[in-house]
Amino acid sequence: MNKIQEFNDYRSKMNEKILASDNKVIKRIFNLDTNAFSEGSVDVKTKEMIGLACSMVLRCDDCVKYHLGKCKEEGVNDDQIFEVFSIANLIGGTIVIPHLRRAVEYWETLQKD
């Protein structure tokens, strides 16, 4: 199984388990996340690029992978993704560089898939 499928399968499996707990607060947080990234005054492609930059600054590799996958689905190209990377590194500082490396590696994997 490739890295992308492994990540997506794990995420789905764990989300199902988490939501099966039927915890009202967790369900509302998940719903809020879904709604925040839905089409609105800001288009989905832009929202995913914002989510990617924020995830990099917060240094959440799982979130970075998720938003990279969504960026690919939304048609973000290499030049755009590297602009997002540059903004994230500017805002987050050099501590973001290790996450940049992993993000570039995952982006390359997505491009091959």
Concise structural overview:
This protein has about 110 residues and is an all-alpha fold. Helices cover about 80% and strands about 0% of the residues.
Explain what the structure shows.
The chain is built from 6 helices and no strands. The mean pLDDT is 97. 19% of the residues are buried. The protein has helices at 3-20, 24-36, 44-58, 61-73, 78-92, 97-112. The chain is mostly helical.
Measured on Cα atoms, how large is the radius of gyration?
15 Å
- So what's the overall shape? globular
Question: Helicity, in percent?
Answer: over 70%
Give the class from helix and strand content and strand pairing.
mainly alpha
Produce the secondary structure layout:
Layout (H helix, E strand, L loop, with lengths): L2 H18 L3 H13 L7 H15 L2 H13 L4 H15 L4 H16 L1
Question: Can you tag this structure with a few keywords?
Answer:
113 residues, mainly alpha, globular
